[in-house]
Amino acid sequence: MLLAFLLGTFAAPSLALAQSDHKSYLLSQVDPDEAYDPFTDYSEFDEESDEEADINFFRNGRFFTIGLAGGYRGFTGNFADAYEAAPTFGIFLSYFFDLRLAMTLGFQTGDHAVKFTVNNQSQTYTGNVSITSVNVDLKYYLNTQNVTRGLADLNPYILGGLAQFYRTYTIAGLDGFSRDSTMGFDLGAGLEIPLMRKKAYLGIQGTYHYVNFSDENKSYVDGSEKLDKNLTGDFYNFLFILGMNF
């Protein structure tokens, strides 16, 4: 019995130590993937939503469009008195980033009759002014999910951007011609009506062009004759655009 007591006394600590080692070993084998991570509950990007948007764009969206434009250009301020409103023509190319945002590169040109007086209407000058512009605009198509289908199919949009304007005068009684240019700003809105099962569209667009030519503060023609009204103002146009979708 003494031998059994001694064996039990020395064996108990060894058994307890073995159990303790076994428990530590089990705790250290917890799978880190199953542990709680407070950062996994929130994601800045919703992958499923992004994937759904991409699929919708590839099925229903447009990559780019090209269109021919024709319409009417008018003027404000003193330009309206000196320049005659006339037709304008152009071409537009749009690249779509997604279903609602596109970048447009446009070219427009048109000729206008010009008439102004000098020295208290003692003399009248007439001629032609040619105005050409290169426009870079961003177009944003409005969300029409909550409106009726008929209105949604009109694809309303707003646009804004920059433009480079070129102006060339040819005046009777003055030798040669005068040419100048300036930067300007565009602001407008429009509609696009789908045609040919959305392979084409008919667009209606109105745009206001803010310009400031270098001679708008000058009061003299040819350095000696005083203008009765300075040639100042801005442009606006209304266009019909016939385009193809790709």
Sequence-ordered SSE layout with sheet pairings:
Blueprint: H1 2-28, H2 47-60, E1 64-75, H3 79-82, E2 86-96, E3 101-118, E4 123-141, H4 149-152, E5 157-171, E6 178-195, E7 200-211, E8 220-221, E9 225-226, E10 235-245
Antiparallel strand pairs: 1-2, 1-10, 2-3, 3-4, 4-5, 5-6, 6-7, 7-10, 8-9
Description of the structure:
By secondary structure, the protein is an alpha+beta fold. The protein has a single domain (62-245), classed as Porin (Beta Barrel). The protein is built from four helices and ten strands, in the order ααβαβββαββββββ. The strands form two sheets. Strands 1-2-3-4-5-6-7-10 form an eight-stranded antiparallel barrel. A two-stranded antiparallel ribbon has the order 8-9. A hairpin with a 3-residue loop joins β8 and β9. The radius of gyration is 36 Å and the shape is elongated.
Structural class: alpha+beta
Name of the CATH architecture: Beta Barrel
Describe the largest sheet.
Answer: 8 strands, antiparallel, barrel
Alpha-carbon Rg, integer? 36 Å
Helix content: 10-25%
Keywords:
single chain, 246 residues, alpha+beta, Porin, 8-stranded antiparallel β-barrel, 4 helices, 10 strands
Question: TL;DR?
Answer:
By secondary structure, this protein is an alpha+beta fold. 20% of the residues lie in helices and 49% in strands.
